[in-house]
Automatic annotation (TrEMBL):
UniProt cross-references to Pfam families, sorted A to Z: EF-G_D2, GTP_EFTU, RF3_C
Residues given in the record as GTP binding sites: 26-33, 94-98, 148-151
Primary localisation category: cytoplasm
Described purpose of this protein according to its UniProt entry: Increases the formation of ribosomal termination complexes and stimulates activities of RF-1 and RF-2. It binds guanine nucleotides and has strong preference for UGA stop codons. It may interact directly with the ribosome. The stimulation of RF-1 and RF-2 is significantly reduced by GTP and GDP, but not by GMP.
Family: Belongs to the TRAFAC class translation factor GTPase superfamily. Classic translation factor GTPase family. PrfC subfamily.
Keywords (A to Z) from UniProt: Cytoplasm, GTP-binding, Nucleotide-binding, Protein biosynthesis
Keyword Cytoplasm: yes
Domain Tr-type G: 17-285
Highest taxon of source: Bacteria
Record protein name field: Peptide chain release factor 3
Amino acid sequence: MENAALAAQFPIEQEVKRRRTFAIISHPDAGKTTLTEKLLMYGGAIRTAGTVKAKKSQQFATSDWMEVEKQRGISVASSVMQFEHEGCVINLLDTPGHKDFSEDTYRVLTAVDAALMVIDAAKGVEAQTIKLLEVCRQRKTPIITFINKMDREVREPLDVIDEIEQILGITCAPITWPVGMGKEFAGVFDLRRHHMLKFTPGDNTAHQAVEVLESVDDPYLTKNFPIAHATFKEELEIVQEAADPFNQEAFLAGDLSPVFFGSAINNFGVRDILEALTQWAPSPRPREAKETTVYPDGKQFSGIVFKIQANMNPQHRDRIAFLRICSGVYRQGLKVNHARSAKPIRLDHAITFMAQERAHLTTAYAGDIIGIPNHGKLRIGDVLSEGELLAMAGIPHFSPEIFKTARLNDPLRSKQLNKALKELGEEGTIQVFEPLEKTGMIMGAVGQLQFETVAHRLLTEYNIDATFESVPVHKALWVSSEDIHQLKRFTQTSSVRLAYDAAGALAFMPPTRAALDITIERWPELTFHTTREINAF
Ligand code: G4P
C-alpha cells in the first residue's frame, strides 16, 4: 500500500492510538540484532535474514571517525525502523551500543513509550542493561522482558527472574515459562492460555507455525523430555503460587514487567513479544509543556529533538536532528515555530522512516520519528510546534562517567579551543565543565566514541589539534538545594571539586566513589542529581 493511502486511512485519533514506539535495551551479545531482525521479518519490513546483521558487521570495524561517519550515512536509515503488525504501526528505535555507546543511547530512551529488555539467559543481568534500565525506571517506561537463548545451556529460569527483580528492582510477571533448556528445550508453557508452545529448532521463516500442545502432560513431553518435564512441573507450581500475575496498571507505571522466554535465533517467542507490544504497550501519551499539556491527538503539530547525528560532510555542518512527534501531524512543507530562537522553520525535506524502503513519506503522526536535515540550527531538547511556542522538558543530560581535558599542540589557540568546546557542549556532542577554580575545561562523556567525535570535529571544523588526557573524576552530578546557605557553604568549601556545565548549572565532580558517598552523607541538605533536564521549567 502506498504511504499517502496509508496515511489517509484513519483519523488522527486512530492513527495515534495504533502507534507503538519502543527501543530494545540489552547488553552487547544478548541478541538485540538477531531479535530486531526477526521482528522486522515478522512485520514484513525485511524479507531475508541477514539484512540487519550484515549492517552490524560492517559497522565500526574501525574506530576511525571518518569511517564511523561514512557508516552513519547508511545507519541513519536503520536508526528508526517502522513496520505494521496487527493494525499497529510499530516504531523500533535503535539504541547504539558496543563502541557506539554514548549519551545518544540514553537519549533514545527518552523518545520511546516502552522498552523491550533482552536478557541472555546464560548471563543474567549485565552492566549495560543495568545502566539503560535505570534511565527507563527514572522515566517510568513500561518494560517487556525477553529471556533469550533458551536453546543453550543456561541458568535456572527462577534464578534469572530473581536476579532481575533483585538487581533491577522491577517485579517480574512470567507470561510464558520454559520447559527445559539447551538440547532439552521443549518449548514454553503459556500461563495465560494454559497450553504449551512446542519448540522447533532451526525454523527461520518469518511466520513460523508454532505447534500447540493442549496438555502440560502431553506424551510428546513426558516421553521425549522426562527430566525437563518433571523439573518444569515443579517450577510451574512455584511460579503459579509465588509469581506476581500480570497487571496492566503496574506495567504502565513501569513497576512490573511481563516476562517471556524464547530463542531469538530460532524465531521462537517473537510472536509473543509482538502481541505484548500491540496489546499492552501504550500508544503515545500526553506530555507536559510549560504552557500547556500537549495531547498526542491534538490538531497542532509539536515535537522535540532528542538526537543529533552529524552527517557525511562535517565541513558543511550537515546534521540530522531526530525529532519525536508529540502531537499532531507532520506533512511535507509544514511551517513550525522553533521555540529557542522564536523563529519559524519550514520542514521541507524531513526524512521519515518507513518499512519497505518507502523513504519519502509525506505524513507522520505523534509517536513517529522524523529526521530533519539542518546546518547546526537545531539542538538537542529543541521544540518545534505549530502555533504557540512550547517549552517541553523530557530530554535530559546524563551524568557522564569518562572525563578528559584537551591539551593543545599549539598553546596559542586556547581561546579558540574554549570557544569550540563551549559550542560542542551546547550542541550536546559532549558535556563541558568549567571548574570554579579555572583549572581548564573538562569534557565528560558516557561513551568513548564521544571523545573521538570531538577530536575529529575540533580538527576539521575548528582547525584545532589537541591531545586528550584523562582526569581523575569519578562522576559529575548536578547539585541543588532548597537551603541556599548550605549550597553557598558547600560551594565555598568544595570549590576544587565543583564546575559549571554548558548551561551554567553547578556540578560536583568527586575523584572517587568513596568521596561521593562521604559528601552525600555529610551534606544531607543537598540533592545530587544524575540527570539535568535541558528545558527545565
Ligand atoms: P547483540 O545485537 O545484542 O550484540 O547480539 P546479536 O544479535 O548479534 O547476538 C549475539 C550472538 O548471539 C550471535 O552469535 C547470535 O547468533 C547469538 N544468538 C542470538 N540469539 C540467540 C539464540 O536465541 N540462541 C543462540 N544459541 N544464539 C543466539 P555470534 O556467534 O556472535 O554471531 P553469528 O556468527 O551467529 O552471527
